[in-house]
Amino acid sequence: MQGWRRKWVMVMLCVLPMIAGCRVIVVDESKEKSEVKQVVQKPTEALKLDAKVQVFKKSLLIRSETTLPKGAIVDVQLKPYPDDATSLQIIRTAVEPLDTVASSGTVKVKKDGIIESITIPRPDENKRYRLEILVDPRKQNEDVQEALGPLGENLSNSEGNVSITEKSQDITFLKKYANIMKREEPDGFMAKLDLVALDEQ
Q1: Residues 79, 81, 87, CA angle at the centre, nearest 5°?
Q2: Backbone angle region of 130, left / alpha / beta, with phi > 0 → left and psi within -120 to 50 → alpha
Q3: Which of 18, 91, 155, 168 could anchor a disulfide with 172, C-beta 3.0 to 4.6 Å?
Q4: Residue 99 phi/psi, 5° resolution?
Q5: How far apart are alpha carbons 88 and 183 in whole angstroms?
Q6: Bigger pLDDT: 42 vs 121
Q7: Are 112 and 57 in contact (CB under 8 A)?
Q8: What is the rounded CA–CA span in Å between residue 43 and residue 40?
Q9: Positive or negative, the Cα torsion across 142, 165, 48, 93?
């Protein structure tokens, strides 16, 4: 029995210095996971802006609905095409409208994505126009900019997104349009048209 105790004491004397040099570090993994969740951002959901226009002789009636936040400003613009542009060139997007705005309006998004309908003048029924709806992130209030990004960073995966570079900054807009033809042409009178993204036509 004495021999066994001696062996046990000898083993302990050999093992204790080894154990004394080791450290045990306890890591709280639940804390690390929660910190990782805070750092990783969820990808933003695509925002929708759907609009239709009804074409009358002297006016255009635009109705829309959206998932944009309440208070977002939506601009409506009617731009004429050059007089020498053919209807085929316009349909194929082979020609751009002039920079002139023939008529325009502005609407705000209300609760639950409701946008009031807006009527804008159609100055000349014998001209062809491009009707555009546009969301410019720089025109929005702080709450809306928080959702869209100050330069539209969160619009990049939304249908109708258009990016430009201005003063070395990339800015992303939402933009949709419809071609308004001359009165005697198809889509020129009493037509109901969907506004679409540029790459859809």
Answers
A1: 130
A2: beta
A3: 155
A4: -75, -10
A5: 16
A6: 121
A7: no
A8: 9
A9: positive
